[in-house]
Amino acid sequence: MSSNAAAQREQALQLVSKRMMQAIEGGLIRLRVEDQSDDGRTITVRGRELVNLGSAAYLGLNTDDRLKDGAKAAIDTFGPVFSSSAAYTSVGLYSDLEDRLEKIFGRRVLIPTTTTLGHLSVLPVLVGPDDLVIMDHQVHASVQLTAKVLEGIGAEVRTIPHNDVDILSATLAESAGRHPHVWYLADGVYSMFGDTAPVREIASLLNEFENMYLYFDDAHGIGWRGPHGIGHVLGSLGHMDRMVVIGSLTKSWGAGGSVLVLPNDAMAERVLLAGATFTFSGPIHPAGLGAAVAAADIHLSSERDAREADLMAKIDHVRHRLVDAQLPVMSLERTPLWFLRVGNPDGAVELARRLMADGYYTNVSGFPVVPMGMDGIRFTTTTFLTHEDVDGFMDSVVRNIEDLVTPIEWHLDLRAT
User: Fold this and answer.
1) 72 contacts: CB under 8 Å, gap ≥ 6
2) pLDDT in tens, 116-145
3) Is residue 176 domain-shared with residue 70, that is, in the same domain?
4) Cβ atoms < 10 Å from Cβ of 369
């Protein structure tokens, strides 16, 4: 590494540390939750009860008694930890969960311990040293981490602007014939701004470029969207021969682990046998597996559809409030994730503090989680929240945000279409 590169790296690390410390000193991150209400609406932090608008448990399953009972039964049988690499032995709940997930997703599935470990298993096995990897600029940090591993094995890695299908197409055309395979890595639902990948436009490129493969991290889409909760990507496209989808079982699902949906058995076997983290990392703990099996039964029933309808009604209520107040929201797509841009770190921290003082917990976010100049707050919609919660929160935002926002030339069409 050159001295100039080393200096730039150190400068970036110092900036990240400064921003993180600012949020810590503001009492906004690295918090310890002392208690949670039975209905999941509120958390207790430093003795104060706060309405929780930072949860990714979109369908409200993580407090469901059936998941708790499944977790308890698993602990009673296997203890809190079954301490063995799954390459040797694993508890039978893995088979129970696989059977249910394959009914839900209609394909062979693997169950990584976490989504991050899933990336680290599948991509280094499927991507070769002469392949090209194209990443969306806002793909999740865990995917970007894995891309460093891909560079280490010799793959060329490029980053393109967010959701820019024209540049993606041009990059594919420019690289035609130079690589055995070209992989495009993106999220299904983006975890910070709540917008989605234009999956149909992206998938249409598969017909034009026969060496193109897709890898979607749909961690925030699995569970609350699509038939039986198959997610944004599979709910929009169905299965495709050159597409891999991974999703989380800890968000909407309310349990533990991740699900990896592969297009064929041969690819699944290759990943299972050669994927490093399937051999060298620990298994999902019994409680997480027991809860995931119970959640899968709910996803296979009509109850999940009712939960989705409830969630969507609350999402629409948030959208209308955002539009009515003409707030600087980054996306108005019908997802459970929202981001209000403040534009400067001091203002973002102050807004989150004011909201907390009014009784609402949100996620303050700045560089490097979002690009420079896009500091703001992220908040989520879950089935835990009531319409009164949403209205009270939105009233607090309107009351507190006006003097904090750094102006920007704004192009977002704030119409609730």
Assistant:
1) 287, 290
2) 999 999 999 999 999 999 999 999 999 999
3) yes
4) 17
* Cα separation, 49 vs 413, whole angstroms: 36
User: How does residue 7 score in pLDDT terms, banded at 50, 70 and 90?
Assistant: confident
CA distance 16 to 12: 6
Helix (H) / strand (E) containing 167: helix 165-174
State pTM to two decimals. Answer: 0.92
23-72 pLDDT, tens per residue? Answer: 787 787 788 999 999 989 999 999 999 999 999 999 999 999 999 999 99
Mean pLDDT (the chain, rounded): 93
What is the CATH classification number for the domain harbouring 320? 3.90.1150.10
- Give bridge partners of residue 157 from the DSSP assignment: 133
393: CB partners within 8 A, 6+ apart:
51, 53, 355, 360, 379
Q: Of 241, 276, 299, which marks where a domain is finished?
A: 299
How many structural domains does the chain have?
2
Q: Tell me how far apart the 2 most distant CA atoms of the chain are, in Å.
A: 62
DSSP of 2-35, one letter per residue? Answer: -HHHHHHHHHHHHHHHHHHHHHHHTT-SS----E
List the one residue out of 237, 280, 284, 282 whose CA is nearest residue 261. 237
Examine the fold and report which residue of 299, 314, 347 is the final residue of a domain before the chain moves on. Answer: 299
Contact 264, 67 (CB under 8 A): no
99 and 223 housed in the same domain: yes
